[in-house]
Amino acid sequence: MTDALLTASKPELLDKEGDRTLRGLLYDYFAFGRSLEACREIFAGFVDLSPTQYLILIAIKNSTAEEPMGVNQVAERLYLSGAFVTNEINKLVSDGLLEKSPHPEDGRRVQLALTQHGMSLLTRLAALQRPVNDALFGMLTREEFKMLAQLLSRLASNADSALKLAEHVQATLKLQEDQRASAASPPDSRKKRRATRRNGR
């Protein structure tokens, strides 16, 4: 495979056959991701929640008294914007699934906890989650599972930077292509385009 066709350049991501292993990894990851998304929708629908509301409740359930969760902590854990999470949390509070209380050390912050109703909802949901999660991850050894958790945490923490890079490089390449196309077009065509732009003003 020629270098121009490679979809990565770091040696760690390539082998003798080019980027075939990387592409295979991504195909498998997308397939597994689709299954995870579908399971999340099933879980959320089972208790009449949106997928995001379901994730918020689960995240707060896993907080501790030593490390209580507020809006910012939930947003960071789920890689979502604070404004979006605030809106969803307010809905959950209105529905009686979450409660807010002042942070014991910082009066500007609130900490979130499940209500009894919220706990009952997640208890009911856990009966569905247990067999599904066992089927999704049960073929892994304990060491493989721990390694997967560590690797995904590192990948997730870098994903936002990669997305911003994709948007920047896309804009740069598009500009370069437009400039090349403009330079390669006949002079008469360029004059017509300039005249069209002037008339359009």
Descriptive notes:
The protein has 201 residues and is mainly α. The protein has a domain at 140-201. The protein is built from seven helices and two strands. It has a two-stranded antiparallel ribbon. Helix 1 packs across helix 2 (51-61) and helix 3 (71-78) packs across helix 4. The longest helix is centred in the last third of the chain and has 43 residues, at 142-184. The relative contact order is 0.06. The model has no long low-confidence stretch (mean pLDDT 90). It comes from Bradyrhizobium arachidis. Residues 176-201 are annotated as: Disordered. Residues 22-157 form the HTH marR-type domain.
Compact description:
With 201 residues, the chain is mainly alpha-helical.
Secondary-structure blueprint:
Elements lengths: L19 H27 L4 H11 L9 H8 L3 H13 L3 E5 L7 E5 L1 H22 L4 H43 L2 H14 L1
Antiparallel strand pairs: 1-2
